[in-house]
Amino acid sequence: MRDLEKEFGRAPKKVLNEPRPLDLDLIAFGDETRNTADLILPHPRAQLRKFVLEPLNEIAPDFILAGQGRSVSQLLAGISSDETVVKIGRPIA
Known about the structure:
mainly alpha, two-stranded antiparallel sheet, globular
């Protein structure tokens, strides 16, 4: 994933949360947990981010992120945010 990001022009960040040409994150891998310098699973803030949970809810509403104890749909319902998630493109037929 890092090589692909570099191929699309991602450079080392200079500012926290700066815009990037491509940003790929591994959110979860089943019920796997990791906490290393290179990888944290599940993503440490996935349960707090509407822009992560909304699309995940479309494909796996009953999925439980390791350590959360609540499904993706339950986590999404519990977010109080004015964040707007906009779906772009067309559905794949």
